[in-house]
Amino acid sequence: MRSMRLFLVLAFNALMLLEAQGFTDETDKQALLEFKSQVGERVILSSWNHSFPLCSWEGVTCGSKHKRVTRLDLGELQLGGVISPSIGNLSFLVWLNLSDNSFGGTIPQEMGNLFRLETLDMGSNFLEGGIPIGLYNCSRLYNLRLASNLLGGGISSEIGSLTKLVHLNFYENNLEGKLPASLGNLTSLQRLLLPQNNLEGEIPSELAKLTQIYSLHIYANNFSGVFPPAIYNLSSLKRLGISYNQFSGRLRPDFGILLPNLRNFIMGRNYLTGAIPTTLSNISTLGRLEMNDNSLTGSIPTFWKTPNLKSLLLGTNFLGSDSSGSLEFLTSLTNCTMLEMLGIGHNRLGGDLPISITNMSAKLIRLGLQNNHFSGRIPHGIGNLINLQKLILDQNMLSGPLPTSLGKLLDLRYLGLFSNRLSGEIPAFIGNFTMLETLDLSNNSFEGFVPASLGNCSHLLELLIGDNKLNGTLPLEIMNIQSLLRLDMSRNSLFGSLPEDVGRLKNLVTLSLENNKLSGQLPQTLGTCLSMGVLYLQGNLFDGAIPDIRGLVGVKEVDLSNNNLSGSIPEYLANFSKLEYLNLSFNNFEGRVPMDGIFQNTTILSIFGNNDLCGGIRGFHLKPCPPQAPQAETKHSSRLKKVVIGVSRKKNKQTNDPTPSTLEVFHERISYGDLRNATNGFSASNMVGSGSFGTVFKAFLPTENKIVAVKVLNLQRRGAMKSFMAECESLKDTRHRNLVKLLTACASIDFQGNEFRALIYEFMSNGSLDMWLHPEEVEEIRRPSRTLTLFERLNIAIDVASVLDYLHVHSHEPIAHCDLKPSNVLLDDDLTAHVSDFGLARLLLKFDQKSFFNQLSSAGVRGTIGYAAPEYGTGGHPSIHGDVYSFGVLLLEMFTGKRPTNELFGGNFTLHRYTKSALPERVLDIADESILHIGLRVGFPIAECLTLVLEMGLRCSEESPTNRLATSEAAKELISIRERFFKTRRTTRR
Ligand SMILES: *[C@@H]1O[C@H](CO)[C@@H](O)[C@H](O)[C@H]1NC(C)=O
Ligand SMILES: *[C@@H]1O[C@H](CO)[C@@H](O)[C@H](O)[C@H]1NC(C)=O
């Protein structure tokens, strides 16, 4: 009783004292009730009413003496509404947590009155507007967290008055502008987190004063400039994240000495150049080192002394030097017993895959070595890496069979081996990989049957085994994998029918079985694969009518060409609104061609080579249908069947993590800004070549996760962007395995207001034939590591001849290339040739004739004029005969090693004459030295072989257009030369 009275007296005195100052707990109560009135969900705050004492209200803590509200903890209470300005009246507040709610609206200025505030956490709400300047009056703030909101505007320089700040977290907002230099005032700062905003500019040098800082994250902004020099001063840094910005320049060689405490250094997706500082390997604390997607060069340092390294990601750079560079770093990684992730794909590393990789940490989850030049076999001990979930060895030169120990990797989710030289059978043990989601064995030399055990891989999303030498039938078991999204077995020698059970694959988006020997009728159940987007069955022996596929309304591409299908073309196809490509050519379809919907668009639809079709819109030039007899009788007469040379439709294979969305065909239009970003502002370091009609840049498109080549055209004609794009669209439809694929185009206005046009092509990792033929003229870093053998040259010549044959004879209308030369012949990973710039001549002729002729005759191309047919000089128009001439010159150059523009030649003494005068006796004198010594068996009749090839070159490069050989002849002859001298099949799958 006594103590109670005493308490009341004391309380009364305290109250008097506070009232005298004009503040009471009544003020706090009013402020909180006002706050509550603005909160959407009030049930939780039901204790906030007059019948409860203020200090026992939910989330409220009072000071022990004055009973004023000092802490308000309302985190994670599902509160909504807005934050009332009355909160600014809680003048004793030290600690305020409103995080993880759904507050919207702005942060009230009045919060700036909370001068005692030390911790303010309003993270994970929907707050918008700017950060009120008043907030920077709260000069005792120690911890300020506004992360994961929608805050915009800049970070004003007044932030420099928060000199007590230790933790500052503005992660994931829409903040923009530059960082104020006054951040350097915050010398107590230990954590500065600004990731995922739109901040830009250089990092102010004043940040060098933040010597207490151990965590600095600014990733995913638009910061630029060289790697911030201020950072070298922050020797206490443990975690540094600057990835996804536009930093450029080199790292200092003493990096590891200046920042000896780093644990995580994440700098992927920038434009940094130069070598990886070897001093990084002195940082014994290093746990994550991620420098992927930059332009780093040189070799990879060793990591003997970084036992804590968990993640090393260096992919998509220019590291290594093809076959010759050191792979000691791989061996050193055996000392990193914590290693979980290793990604060094998309570099220039080469040489036999060292066996030591099998001694790496058994903790390894992900191993990515794709798109390098690794050769040799997959080491036998690969099964030691027992926890591997992703093994990615795509696009190397690995050979031999799959080792049996691979069967131990039962956790595999992703097994990517495409585009190697692997052989033998597909092992049945893959069926034990029950977690497997992607199996990509395409483009190897696997043979034998498709194992039925694959049907046990019940999580499989992608089963990709096209471009091999597989035979046998399609196992029924595969039709049990209901998860399948993509099934690609194209270009093998599979036979038998397409099983009825294909209808069980309800999730299938892509079915590619083209160019096999499948036969019989197409199953009716095909129409129940309702997710189908791409259906490729061309180049088989299917017969009968098209089954009822009216359910496949989402389908985008259907190719049934080159089969023996018959019957009429279903009317309902006209209504497939998503359809972008329908090829029914070279079958026995008959009767009336529908006139509606997509059948009005001759660019989407291909129906030629069906003899008994009639009607249709005029563009198809079909005979009129007989009145009242819409369906002609079936006629199975023997019919000359043209063969369209293997139309290749390879999908994007460069992604590390193919998900269905990134595997979609590249349809997105692309903006100037995107291309500018992707090419580092069209910088010289991204430039990979310049040709007659423009400059080519290597570009990384983050949205597609894909490296592409961007050809920026020099065009003079203004306007007509729409027709330019339309023309490009039509170019996209001409496809051949030996053409560089045009992915998309861009017609736009650049940042200076000039018109800008670019073509975006597949990127070819092995550069141009020109580089391979004249390595001495190539800068060291891009120089091929070896010379091409006679056999490889012959294959390349055949590739080029077959694509010319296709363009000249087999495409809808004959297309002349007009600018064929070694720099326009690009080589992919397995040295298959792809002709680039095809269609450019047609495009330019149609679109900007003036530019075209100006550029052909300009000083810029005179250096390559030796490839242009003589009639071009006398005003002749581009023609297919001109291409044959260029091809002849190309052949001569490939096997003599001499350019037509070599200083040896002049006047009438041309490469043609030079070659002709030496044949046949002195053929070895004029042959390219480097082919005489490599890759040939003892006793190989080299003189004879070379003579035949060079004679082909001469016959193609005759002065008079009418005396030149046709490309189809040239292709045939070259193939027969290959067969005669190289009885073995090509080592790589063609
Ligand atoms: C930075 O700190 C200095 C001294 O502590 C102070 O005078 C100055 O006003 C501060 N700058 C800003 C922008 O707050
Ligand atoms: C590998 O690690 C061990 C243990 O941390 C260390 O003693 C050894 O020196 C390292 N090896 C090399 C070559 O540095």
Automatic annotation (TrEMBL):
ATP binds at K711. GO terms for biological process: response to bacterium. Its EC number is 2.7.11.1. It holds the Pfam family LRRNT_2. Residues 1-22 form the signal peptide. It catalyses: L-threonyl-[protein] + ATP = O-phospho-L-threonyl-[protein] + ADP + H(+); L-seryl-[protein] + ATP = O-phospho-L-seryl-[protein] + ADP + H(+). GO terms for molecular function: ATP binding; protein serine/threonine kinase activity. Transmembrane segments: none annotated. The keyword Transferase applies. One of its GO terms (cellular component) is plasma membrane. Residues 682-982 form the Protein kinase domain. It is an enzyme of class 2 (transferase). SMART domains: LRR_TYP (SM00369), S_TKc (SM00220). It is a single-pass membrane protein; Single-pass type I membrane protein. PANTHER family: GENOME ASSEMBLY, CHROMOSOME: A10, OS04G0122200 PROTEIN. This is non-specific serine/threonine protein kinase.
